[in-house]
Every structure is written in structure tokens, then in C-alpha cells.
Amino acid sequence: MDGQPRYLWVADLLRRPILDGELEPGSRLPSRSRLARTYGVSEQVSRHALRLLVSEGLVEARPGSGYYVRTVPQIHRFSRTDRSSGAGVDPLQRADLGTRTETVCGIVARRLELRDGVRVFRTSCLGMADDMPVALHTAWEPAALTQGTLRTPADAEAGTSVLQRLGAAGVAIDRVVEEVGVRPLREPESSLLKLAPGLPVLVVERTHYQGRRPVETSDLVGSIDHCRLLYRLSLARSPKREGR
Amino acid sequence: MDGQPRYLWVADLLRRPILDGELEPGSRLPSRSRLARTYGVSEQVSRHALRLLVSEGLVEARPGSGYYVRTVPQIHRFSRTDRSSGAGVDPLQRADLGTRTETVCGIVARRLELRDGVRVFRTSCLGMADDMPVALHTAWEPAALTQGTLRTPADAEAGTSVLQRLGAAGVAIDRVVEEVGVRPLREPESSLLKLAPGLPVLVVERTHYQGRRPVETSDLVGSIDHCRLLYRLSLARSPKREGR
DNA sequence: AAGTGGTCTAGACCACTAT
DNA sequence: TAGTGGTCTAGACCACTTA
């Protein structure tokens, strides 16, 4: 119990039975004052230990009630390799946030290989599960592609995939590139997802290409507790050739 | 400055100039006692604010010296769709951790569709950049596949891919499934990666199949600050059929 | 009404860095 | 040697949940 900070020692003592399943999900942990008395530390130390467990996702704090072992959250798997149906939040219920026309800014402009200031459609939707937001999908495409047709994101029937929609407008998408990473949640997203800004979230930056030309790009932002990405890759023919 | 906790208020005041680039990466922030005096809060409040920024990855604490705006970390992109070369940490320098024989446990057994207790080879390696560990790759395969041949993970020349190696042993891999997620770093991994246990890390669980039979499965664990995953998907033929 | 988590104050010591 | 971050103590008030 020495050399190591006391709050880590207390956290370890609590973490063990949680990971081993001795403390069932949903059960209450000792309160921070109780812990302090039990282990002979100050209340700040027990508080520090409990907040550490919260930040690790093992424990949930319910103000006024106590600390509880977290129930294993419902995991949603997003299959990234079937392009059969709807928008980017596929297995979930979709809550459309509409389409706006805007002039494209730095990063998105680069992904679409457009000059700054070109007009694009921005379309967003939330993926919902049990009436709770789980993932946010935001897509950008050059307005010039479909403007004036009935194939704009705003005109298309709900549930139409980009491939179908742009295909009908004469744009044959044949290549998709996805980049997956984790970053802190930013502000417009955090209020939509009802998560704290700064919380790490899983991000998929996807770009659709017709040959070398990018024709649509999107961000999928999802809670790391609830979201998994699934890729089914076929190696049917020869081993893939070198890319980069 | 009201309604909101003061530490969030202080954190916001610091976050703004960092994100806007007014505070250059590497520059020092005011110390916690200086901040406390400046904004008329207690030292615990300024400390809370600074630790929040640290947890968001914007700021780095150097004990005895101060808080510094973090230098943008080197990002490493792992291309998950070329299977051309070596082990699972491809663009990086590989540090082999060897191959062990072990009896398979719960989760890995399920992924390989084996009964508990079947013998498997476990092979690990670290991906290094600038002599710092960035990602950890651990692979499991049934020992029965290659035992007695010169195609075991231990016998193969370094830099041989699973596809090549098992292919030479008569196991033709034709399908790969990857599941991407984020979870807290656990103990054996954290000391190898020299990261704190509990820190969120990007995880790719990959399974190689010959037809319906899983023949190899692996975990790629990487720091969320340094790792991105790249998927290049070709839609050359008809839209992919429905899976799952 | 009692207990709880979230926040806050005003101090303190240690190991470390910078000078 | 002074300053810094990490840790720690011993209190406190508030809004909330629980009974």
C-alpha cells in the first residue's frame, strides 16, 4: 500500500471485484465518505478513486444516490461494408436533422478536393436507440452534382443510400475510403448526442469516389461505449495489391 | 460565469485560445497557483480545470515544470485493406515479442470457434515509432494448423503475412472480419505500451476465415492519439449484397 | 430528514525542474 | 533555492435522491 498513491490503491481494491464479476452490474458501491472511513483515507482520496473508475467507464455516479457498477451498455454494431440501405446510421432508428446549403470550409473542402467557398449540401441525422442518441452522421456533397434535379439529399426519399441517389443522378460511385479514429467531442455535436464535450468519441471519416473524384464525404461520430464498427472484407481473388 | 461550475469556466477560457491556435503548441500555460490568483478561484479549481484539459488531450503536465500546450502528435495510419506484408503493425517498425503455446480461453476460443483448452499459438509484437511503442498486436491461431511444419508463427521468417504463411501451409484465407471499438487499456498491455491502465485505446479485433472456419484471430491495440485506421473499399461490381 | 455526489476553500508536504 | 505539479487533509455548502 506504499509507493503508490492512495487513491490508486483504493481504486484497485474496487476495480478487482468489478472486473471479476463479484460486484454485479447495477449494484451500489460504498459512498465516498464510507470508503474514506473504511480505508482510513480522506474523503478527497476516495472521491478521486471513484472518479477514476467513472472515467474508466466501470462505474456510474448518480448524484444524490450513489456510485453504481455500470450495467453493460447496449452495443450497436455498424456494418461498414454493406451499402444496401439508408443513411450512415444503418441498424439504428434514424432521426433526420435536415439538409442545408453552405459554402465549404477548410477540412471538408480538402476532403472533397474543392476550393474554399464552393457550395455544398450538408445533411445530418442522428442514430437513435431506445429514444437515446447514439451516433451522429453528417454528410457533405457538392451542390453542383444534383442541384436542380430531384436527386438532392433534400429531395430524395428517406432511406435512400448515397449510392442509389447519386447513381440515379448519373454519378457512379466505385470507391470508398474510410479513416477511423478517436477524438474529443466538440460542441455542436455534444448537445445533439447529449454527451459532455471533451469526451472521446469514435469517428469515421468516409469519402465516396467516382474514379479519382471525391463526390461525397461524411463523418460518423459515435459514443465509444455503444458503438462498434464492422468490416467484412473478401479476399476472394488474389491478395490485394499495394496501395498507399 | 454563473450556473456553470467555476472549473469549467476556467477550462473554457484556456481551451478557446488553444483550439484557435493563439497559444502555440509547446507554449507554457500559467501555473495552477497563478491561474487561481488571476481568476480569483481556489487552487483546487484551477487544478481541476487543468486536469480536465489534460484528460482531453489538449494539454500536457510536466511535473516540476508546468502545463504545456500539447504538440500535435505524430499520426500513424494503419491501412487495413492491403494485406501485402508483415504482421499487424505494418507501416511501423516491428519489435517482436515472440510466440507462445497456450490453451485457449473464453473470448478467444469463441472467436476461433474452439472448445476451451485447445492449444493455440499466441504471437505478439509491438509497433514502434521513434523508439516509442505505438501499437500492440496479439494474434492467436490453432496450433493444429501448422504444428510440426515450418509454417508455425515461430518458424516463419519475420515479415511474412498470415496469408502467405497459412497459404503455404495449405490454409487458403478468403475472408476477413474486423470489429473496431474503444475500451480502457488493461494491465498486460499498458506496461508494454507504456501508457496508463484505464486510458481509452483503439482496438481492432480481426478474424481470418477459410470459408466458414476461423483460422486466425488478432487484437490490434493502439493509442487513440497516434493511431488511425484506413479502409479502402472497392465497389467495382454490383452493390454488396446483404450480410448478417 | 438523512445521505449522497458535485463542487469549493484553505491550507499542507513531497519530488521534481529550473535557475 | 524558488517554483511547479501530484497528492493529501479537514473542513464546507448545495441540489438531489431516498426513505
Give descriptors for this structure:
DNA-binding; Chorismate lyase; 244 residues; 6 helices; alpha+beta; elongated; 23% helix; two-stranded antiparallel ribbon; six-stranded antiparallel beta sheet; homodimer; Arc Repressor Mutant, subunit A
Structure description:
Two copies of one chain form a homodimer. The first copy, chain A, has 244 residues and is of the alpha+beta class. Chain A has helices at residues 6-19, 32-39, 43-55, 106-112, 162-168, 187-193; strands at residues 59-62, 66-69, 76-79, 93-103, 119-129, 132-142, 175-184, 200-210, 213-223, 227-234. Chain A has a six-stranded antiparallel sheet, covered by helices on one side. A two-stranded antiparallel sheet of chain A has the order 1-2. A two-stranded parallel ribbon of chain A has the order 3-10. In chain A, a hairpin with a 2-residue loop joins strand 8 (200-210) and strand 9. The longest helix of chain A has 14 residues, at 6-19. Chain A starts with 5 loop residues before the first helix and ends in a 10-residue tail after the last strand. Chains A and B meet through strand 7 and strand 10 of A and strand 7 and strand 10 of B. Strand 7 (175-184) of chain A pairs antiparallel with strand 10 (227-234) of chain B. Chain A binds a DNA duplex (19 and 19 nucleotides) through helix 3.
List the helices and strands and how they pair.
Two copies of one chain form a homodimer.
Chain A: H1 6-19, H2 32-39, H3 43-55, E1 59-62, E2 66-69, E3 76-79, E4 93-103, H4 106-112, E5 119-129, E6 132-142, H5 162-168, E7 175-184, H6 187-193, E8 200-210, E9 213-223, E10 227-234
Parallel strand pairs in A: 3-10
Antiparallel strand pairs in A: 1-2, 4-5, 5-6, 6-9, 7-8, 8-9
Chain A binds a DNA duplex (19 and 19 nucleotides) through helix 3.
